[in-house]
Design goal:
about 300 residues; binds NADP nicotinamide-adenine-dinucleotide phosphate; Quinone Oxidoreductase, Chain A, domain 1; Rossmann fold; globular
Length: about 300
């Protein structure tokens, strides 16, 4: 089968089409024919650093496709069913490929209203938003939620999930993206290029920080009593936890995990019309390097999707 591989760590140019053996599903696993996958910043990081493996891995965590084969004992799916999910994260999943083997319960049925391209855009970013808001910060109706980079991959779905859960949502985005972020349901949008978000936002219960660096500690100044910063980037070096403790707030670093229950909630939000992915760019698998170049600008609105099969 065709997949994207790399012989060495480096820039987008190291990515190339390789021919590799088709994987076989073991007990509890399924083989999925991948129709689309999507691009996330963790892919860029793994391409450059190799992550925990320290060397090249097969990239990609999002998948939307069709069950080709089920392994021994799998009762959840049958061949021919359309599924989507974020398998194996944080271990490598290798979804930049024609086929992928995953534990059956890392997937759920694809909502009929979504194309494979749309479905592939959602799992990693939507699970991140769901696990940050629900599992980590325990968001409740009426909570005030500040979402940094609200127009980005994680941000644009986190705004929608927070609204669906009854929160009041403040997002940060550059001026030209404000209409888009309001259209997602945000109650307020702060232009981070002109305004200091730490003075413009207040009485916040939950901050979802996708930016990192000084954003974590500065976000503490927007919180009200009992508030929490959930950091998705740069956990340690800013001393976020120390600052938070000193000010009497909670903070934590979170890494998204494969999550069957979370995927069911995400599919339900799609089915009820409360969660829709925004797709900025669609490219064929062979153009993974181009997709990385675009993504690495850090200016994406919504998601970049790679198509694999029709
Ligand atoms: N810990 C985890 O499990 C986890 C999971 C998913 C993602 N992440 C991390 O979260 C980060 C974001 O991921 P993503 O997929 O959302 O990335 P992305 O789609 O590339 O984010 C792009 C967006 O960021 C916005 N942006 C850039 N600088 C900003 C700033 N200073 N203030 C506000 N918005 C800003 C841009 O909007 P403008 O052009 O308007 O500035 C753009 O729309 C990455 O670092 C990723 O690694 C972590």
């Amino acid at each position: 089968m065709r997949a994207i591989g790399q012989d060495s760590l480096g820039g987008p140019e190291v990515l190339k089409i390789v021919e590799v053996g088709r994987p076989e599903p073991g007990p509890g696993e399924v083989l999925v024919r991948v129709h689309a996958t999507s691009v996330n910043p963790t892919d860029f990081w793994h391409r450059v650093t190799g992550g925990l493996a320290g060397g090249p891995i097969r990239l990609g965590w999002d998948v939307s496709g069709v069950i080709e084969e089920v392994g021994l004992g799998v009762t959840l799916f049958e061949p021919g069913e359309e599924v989507f999910g974020m398998p194996l994260q944080p271990r490598p999943a290798g979804t930049y490929a024609e086929y992928v083997v995953t534990p059956a319960r890392h997937l759920v049925r694809k909502p009929a209203s979504l194309s494979h391209v749309q479905a592939a855009a959602l799992p990693l970013v939507a699970l991140t938003g769901w696990q940050a808001l629900v599992d980590t910060a325990r968001v409740r109706p009426g909570h005030r939620v500040l979402v940094h980079a609200a127009a980005g991959g994680v941000g644009h779905v986190t705004v929608q999930i927070a609204k669906a859960l009854g929160a009041y949502v403040i997002g940060t985005a550059s001026g030209p993206k404000h209409d888009f972020v309001r259209g997602l349901g945000a109650d307020e949008v702060i232009d981070h290029t002109r305004t200091d978000f730490a003075s413009a936002a207040g009485d916040v219960d939950i901050v979802v920080d996708t930016i990192g660096g000084e954003y974590g500690p500065r976000s503490l100044w927007t919180l009200r009593e009992g508030g929490m910063v959930v950091s998705l980037a740069s956990p340690a070096e800013t001393g976020l936890a120390v600052h938070a403790r000193a000010l009497g707030f909670r903070s934590t670093f979170m890494i998204v995990e494969a999550d069957h229950a979370g995927m069911r909630e995400i599919a339900a939000l799609v089915d009820s019309g409360r969660l829709t992915p925004e797709i900025q760019t669609v490219l064929p698998l062979e153009q993974a390097a181009r997709a990385h170049e675009i993504g690495e600008t850090g200016r994406t609105t919504g998601k970049i999707v790679l198509t694999v099969a029709d």
